[in-house]
From TrEMBL, chain A:
Gene3D superfamilies: 3.40.50.2300. The keyword Phosphoprotein applies. The lineage of its organism: Bacteria, Bacillati, Actinomycetota, Actinomycetes, Micromonosporales. GO terms for biological process: phosphorelay signal transduction system. This is Response regulator. The keyword Disulfide bond does not apply. It comes from Actinoplanes auranticolor. Pfam families: Response_reg.
TrEMBL record, chain B:
One of its GO terms (molecular function) is phosphorelay sensor kinase activity. Residues 86-137 form the PAC domain. NCBIfam families: sensory_box. This is Sensor-like histidine kinase SenX3. GO terms for biological process: osmosensory signaling via phosphorelay pathway. Its EC number is 2.7.13.3. GO terms for cellular component: plasma membrane. InterPro entries: BphY/WalK/GraS-like, HATPase_C_sf, HATPase_dom, His_kinase_dom, HisK_dim/P_dom, HisK_dim/P_sf, PAS, PAS-assoc_C. PANTHER family: BACTERIOPHYTOCHROME, TWO-COMPONENT HISTIDINE KINASE.
């Protein structure tokens, strides 16, 4: 099992609470690091100095303050330190253009947050099992 | 016979020919190589208020303004130079301003082949010109108006797009919170809550789910309106099969008899037509729930060359008195306790069918099932499904 942290990029504190709860209910004990906007997410992943966060999974909302999710995704894919990290777009939208654009920019998966909490718990379970257990991640990119 | 007829024609004299050219509404005249008048017809006299005996020997420069006379002369010379009839538009003054003529000019040649005069026949086309200009002006105006309306429509479509996007995002988020916290209350504090309180929480959740469904349906309705319509080969049989498989997956304990004929196809937008089938077959599925011998039948027929598809069920049906309300958003003909639904599905269906240029019609009676017929292409004028 990948035991790296999960980076949750989410500005809605309720959703943060639900996501943490949903993973806990599924006994996924990976640390969940929260970035509440796109800029903060990029500072964690691609810091100017210091140790970058190397998450086992990134859960990325699209509609975010400052730098939106799709821009974060573009930056992640553009930098070799983060280009192969698994990114699951986890968002309220089911607009076709968001789905198309997410995949075009290299999202690994697109999940619409269900309204019903129990369905969300189930989605978190599937995501956790697949991305942290079943999936074989790329080895970390060597820097410099 | 023929020979005799031409013989007679040959003997027609000057008088008769003059009578002929005098009784036409065209302006007819003959000028020599120097532009001096040899002959004009009565229409010419009437038009320019001149008598033919006064004109003979004069040139256009004696009769008309210089620029007009120059034009006439240049056209005469063209006919001379060419040696065969030439056609052109000319303008000549009249009491109510310049009038436009279409003129044929041809040279007259003597026995040696030398051109010695030019004949002109001018027909007044001023009215036609005005009409043409009017048509052109109206066309331009119409095109301008279409351009303006298209631009307006594009703006409103963009606004609708932004609105729908915002609805899909911003309206669902608080709903998730209401749902989520209701669930957390039940999970974490269920033991200490009175049974009644837990029931209320359940009702909150049921309503949230209903509202979420409404938002999704509204989004589908708006999407059915704003997505660009593609017209391609669409396999209706396959789409209907997928829809039925989904329904069976969702309610595996139900097994209504379903007939989907092989080889049903249409020209249309597969994504949108899928929504049509999803709603119509979904409705049939829903309204046959109380019938132990539930049957749903998809069919196709041609009516006056128009492809008509139908979805028929033997479910609850509805009263035809309310049929006119059927396709309006949020209209429901059954209470929420009998059958759940948001009342948007048929509005989506109607929107999609209309966008394809088709028609839709429902037939039903309470307790006797319902049949929805629809077409997906424009029908001949006056055709009604």
């Amino acid at each position: 099992m990948s035991d790296g942290p999960i980076l949750l990029v989410e500005d809605n504190p309720d959703d943060v609470l639900f996501t943490i709860r949903a993973f806990a209910k599924n006994h996924i004990r990976n640390e969940i690091v929260v970035a509440s906007d796109g800029e903060q997410a990029l500072r964690l992943l691609l810091p100017g100095e210091g140790q970058p966060l190397h998450p086992a999974l990134i859960l990325l909302d699209i509609k975010l303050p400052k730098v939106d999710g799709l821009e974060v995704l573009r930056a992640i894919r553009d930098d070799e330190r983060t280009s192969s990290l698994p990114v699951v777009v986890l968002t309220t939208s089911s607009e076709e253009r968001d789905i198309v654009e997410s995949y075009r920019l290299g999202a690994n998966s697109f999940v619409r947050k269900p309204v019903v909490f129990e369905e969300f718990v189930e989605a978190a379970n599937v995501l956790g099992v697949y991305w942290l257990l079943v999936n074989q991640p790329a080895p970390p990119a060597r820097n410099g | 016979m023929k020979a005799r007829a031409s013989q007679k024609l040959m003997t027609v004299g000057h008088e008769q020919l003059m009578a002929l050219i005098d009784h036409t509404s065209a302006v007819i005249y003959m000028r020599d190589a120097d532009g001096r008048y040899l002959l004009v017809n009565r229409e010419y006299e009437r038009l320019f208020k001149l008598r033919r005996e006064d004109i003979v020997g004069l040139t256009d420069h004696d009769l008309f303004a210089e620029d007009i006379a120059d034009d006439f002369r240049a056209n005469d010379l063209r006919a001379f130079a060419r040696g065969f009839p030439v056609q052109m538009e000319e303008q000549a003054p009249s009491d109510d301003g310049l009038r436009t003529y279409v003129t044929v000019k041809f040279p007259l040649t003597d026995a040696t082949g030398r051109s010695y005069a030019v004949c002109g026949i001018s027909t007044d086309i001023t009215e036609r010109k005005h009409a043409e200009e009017e048509v052109r002006r109206l066309n331009n105006e119409l095109e301008q108006r279409v351009r303006e309306r298209t631009a307006e429509l594009e703006v409103s479509t963009r606004e609708l797009d932004a609105f729908a996007y915002s609805v899909s995002h911003d309206l669902r988020a608080p709903l998730r919170s209401v749902e989520g916290f209701s669930q957390i209350l039940i999970e974490d504090f269920g033991d200490t809550l009175a049974e009644e309180a837990r029931q209320y929480l359940g009702r909150i959740q049921a309503n949230v789910a209903r509202m979420a469904q409404m938002i999704d349906d509204l989004l589908n309705l708006s999407r059915a309106t704003r997505v660009e319509l593609r017209r391609e080969h669409t396999d209706i049989t396959a789409l209907a099969g997928e829809v039925v498989a989904e329904l069976r997956g969702r309610e595996p304990d139900r097994s209504p008899g379903i007939v989907i004929p092989d080889g049903l196809v249409a020209q249309g937008d597969p994504h949108l037509i899928r929504l049509v089938l999803q709603n119509l077959i979904g409705n049939a599925w829903k309204f046959t729930v109380h019938n132990p011998d539930a049957a749903i039948r998809l069919a196709h027929e041609q009516r006056d060359g128009v492809d008509v598809y139908s979805v028929q069920d033997n479910g609850a049906g509805f009263d035809m008195r309310f049929a006119h309300k059927l396709f309006d958003p949020f209209q429901r003909l059954h209470s929420a306790t009998d059958f759940e639904g948001t009342g948007i599905g048929l509005a989506i269906v109607h929107r999609i069918v209309t966008r394809h240029g088709g028609q839709i019609r429902a037939e039903s009676a309470p307790g006797e099932g319902a049949t929805f017929r629809f077409s997906l292409a424009p029908a001949p004028a006056g055709w009604v499904l």
